[in-house]
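Slide 14.
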Amino acid sequence: MKILVVDDESDIPALFRQKFRQELKQGLLSFHFCFSAEEALVYLNSVSAADVVLILSDINMPGMNGIELLRRIKEIRPSLSVFMITAYDESDKQDQARRLGANEYLTKPIDFLVLRDKLFSGRNTPLRKEVL
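Slide 15: predicted structure.
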């Protein structure tokens, strides 16, 4: 199961690899990291992105923001699950993200126990069918 993480912060890959160390070791998931929305769109149009089942995207990034990225993702791959992540809990952005098709809206700092639960425990999670 491949998860695409889109965030302009350079420490994000190490953080995700540390927090999901066991799942990575067991081969339950893999990550691909992009540091901008533009880079993510290029990646999503590549052959190697065909098996991406979930995108975790920051909202506030330089250049194209996460809300615009979400809109474009839903145009090219409408069934792809997208979780939006932001350091600011703004209800207007949350409403906009949900209207555009975001499956979840998480705030930073990310509670990795909550994220893990959303990935592996819920009935309607993007990874549920692969885990069973």
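Speaker note: Helices lie at 12-19, 21-25, 37-44, 66-76, 91-99, 112-120, 128-131.
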